[in-house]
Amino acid sequence: MTARSFDYSKWDNIELSDDESDLHPNIDKESWFRMKHRSRLEREAREDVEIKEMKKQNEQDAARIKVVKARLARRNDGEDAEYEDYDALQGELTELELRIQSKQKKIDQIMEKRSWNIDNICHVKEEKTFVNSANISSLKAEDFEPTGVTEAVLAQKETSTEPSSTSTPSNDTLPTPPSNTNTTATNTTATKATTATTTTTAKTTPPTPPTTSSSSSSTTATTTTTQAQLPLNPKKSPKQAALSYNDYVLTHEQLLERYSEISSIEETKEFLVRHCDILLHEHSQSYILLSCLEDEMNGKHKRMKLVCRQSQILSHITELAQSMKRDPRDVIIPFFIRIQEPEHFQGFTNAVDDFVDRIKKRAVEKRREMDMERRREAVGDNVPLGPGGLNPLEVLEQLPESMRNAFDSQDIGALHRAVAEMKPSEARKWMKMCVDSGLWVPSNSNEFDDNDDPNEDENVC
């Protein structure tokens, strides 16, 4: 039998406080473990005191040995002192050495009998502490400076066009924002990414992302497409703010689109953890918010609902971070743990449904605004006034929604129903404005005059 290359016998005597081998069935287990642990600590404390005392005595004896050896060395050097008893010094030296050996042997026996336990079975050989750098990227829109991506793309496109078309970017150079002459939004993603052109800077501003779910309604009401008039960052000029947003979106558009199309909550969490610096940025939240509206206006209702959920995840993480006074990147995991609870998940689902409803309403309003702008562009600035001197487009914008929809669809029956649902005085007021603007030509020109009977039949048209 070959000899062992390593002696493992020192691991045979390991004392475990939670060892149940000597536990009596009538003794409480936890109490027994605590008693064994306390007994070991007290025994080792007594032994440590004894060892410390013996080491102290050995140090004193070692110091005395040095003195005795120095005095004995004088005789060896030929210095014969008159009163030195060298035999006594030699005997004292021998006695001191034997005493030190005896105490050291006793110390070794105590340490050898001491069993291995959690406190002495290992020790820290080397310890280091690494502190990561505090260079954390900001998630604020005002802190993102333009990188020049948009201007570089525009310059490259302009150099490839004819001189006659370089003054104004054409539709072939960069995707343009949704035109007000269309009834639906176009270029859902590229449109939002390229609004900062030299010709549209004056009326194009980067959207302000919602910071909380409660403020999403107000943000949705004002955030329409990239041509919406939104509050600008006071620290930047309109052009700088637009370039900042467009540069950010052009740089990270593919990643933002990938995030918008993730259907699994678990995959969303993993994707957010990997790309939190990008997705939790205010520009990213603005982009995804605009995607919700444009998907709805383009008829992509199923995708709109998914993007709304992804947008609300970012909004809720931001809101949770504000309530905890932490960085949004620190609360990604806590947020997803929180929505695993049925109560919080139901609340999150309700918030997503409310957000979807607001997007649908805003899409209808935006489509109507685009139709109005289309009419204005079609007739130009010289809009003929009606018989009463009112502008028909201005009156059409002021009409109640039911009457406005009836005029848009040119449905007389719908107009009758809309008027019938109003009070006679209110119906007469609106119809009088329609007559004065030329939107409605009555059979009797005085039918809606103010001096008519206020109790006249409700079906005034």
What can be said about this structure in brief?
With 461 residues, the chain is mostly helical. The protein has helices at residues 29-76, 86-113, 149-159, 190-193, 216-222, 238-260, 265-274, 276-279, 282-297, 301-324, 332-338, 342-379, 392-398, 401-409, 412-420, 424-437.
Fold topology:
Elements: H1 29-76, H2 86-113, H3 149-159, H4 190-193, H5 216-222, H6 238-260, H7 265-274, H8 276-279, H9 282-297, H10 301-324, H11 332-338, H12 342-379, H13 392-398, H14 401-409, H15 412-420, H16 424-437
Helix pairs in contact: 1-2, 5-12, 6-9, 9-10, 9-12, 10-12, 13-16, 14-15
Structure description:
It is built from 16 helices and no strands. It has helices spanning 29-76, 86-113, 149-159, 190-193, 216-222, 238-260, 265-274, 276-279, 282-297, 301-324, 332-338, 342-379, 392-398, 401-409, 412-420, 424-437. Helix 1 runs antiparallel to helix 2, helix 5 (216-222) packs parallel to helix 12 and helix 13 runs antiparallel to helix 16.
Give the strand tally: 0
Span of the ends, CA to CA: 116 Å
- The general outline is elongated
Number of helices: 16
Major sheet: size, sense and barrel closure? none
- Helix content range: 55-70%
- The secondary-structure class comes to mainly alpha
- Any idea what the radius of gyration is? 44 Å
Let me know the average pLDDT.
75
Question: How much of the polypeptide forms β-strand, as a percent range?
Answer: under 5%
Uncertain segments are 164-232, 452-460
Helix and strand string, N-terminal first?
HHHHHHHHHHHHHHHH
